[in-house]
Amino acid sequence: MKIRYNRVCPAAISGILDNRIRRWFQKPRKILEPYVQEGMTVLDLGCGSGFFSIEIARMVGSSGLVIASDLQEGMLRKLRKKIKGTDLEKRVILHKCEEDVIGISEKVDLAIVFYMLHEVPNPEKTLNELSSIVKTNGFLFIAEPYLHVSSKGFNNTIKMALDNGFTIVERPKIFLSRAVVLKKD
Ligand SMILES: C[S@@+](CC[C@H](N)C(=O)[O-])C[C@H]1O[C@@H](n2cnc3c(N)ncnc32)[C@H](O)[C@@H]1O
Fold this sequence. Notes:
The protein contains six helices and seven strands, in the order H-H-E-H-E-H-E-E-H-E-H-E-E. The chain has one domain (26-184): Rossmann fold, CATH 3.40.50.150. The protein is α/β, with parallel strands linked by helices. It has a seven-stranded mixed β-sheet with strand order 3-2-1-4-5-7-6, sandwiched between helices. It has helices at residues 20-25, 28-32, 53-60, 73-83, 123-133, 151-163; strands at residues 41-45, 65-70, 92-96, 108-114, 134-145, 166-170, 177-184. Helix 4 (73-83) links the parallel strand 2 (65-70) and strand 3 (92-96). The chain is globular and about 40 Å long. It binds S-adenosylmethionine. S-adenosylmethionine binds next to loops.
């Protein structure tokens, strides 16, 4: 029998992902401002309880769209509760993906994959699918937690992205993180 360590951050502790302390050292708007514009369609893959999705929804405005996708229904439920009855409800599509399949048909201008790829069993497959979801000349923003992902591990992730048709645009500096922004050729 194959025993696999479950590395997925449980929805029950989503409070550690969305709180005032994190917001103090990682400001979603400041991090994403250079890449998000009004009217864009943005995929937030592994959205959790929506730490980034909510701010992205404000930034894309009423003409834009956010696809907030997560493996765990519990995370999506928390995000749904946060936006219920607000203007943002109309521009956020909640999408439940599978462990190895994102499964959306829309093409996006930008995909955000924040602190998620190290939880995926087959990141190469995810990056391959992302390359067909991100529009040509669109962007992919990947960030991983500094303490969970080594420099070597992150370079390996970047290599997989390059092998799947992306090129490096920038290496943003984000506290406690390793990050890269790539462009789809
Ligand atoms: C550490 S949390 C980060 C959440 C959010 N991006 C943030 O920065 O606050 C990782 C999220 O990725 C999700 N996740 C893990 N594996 C996944 C997969 N294979 N497909 C989609 N989501 C996944 C988890 O359910 C969890 O919500």
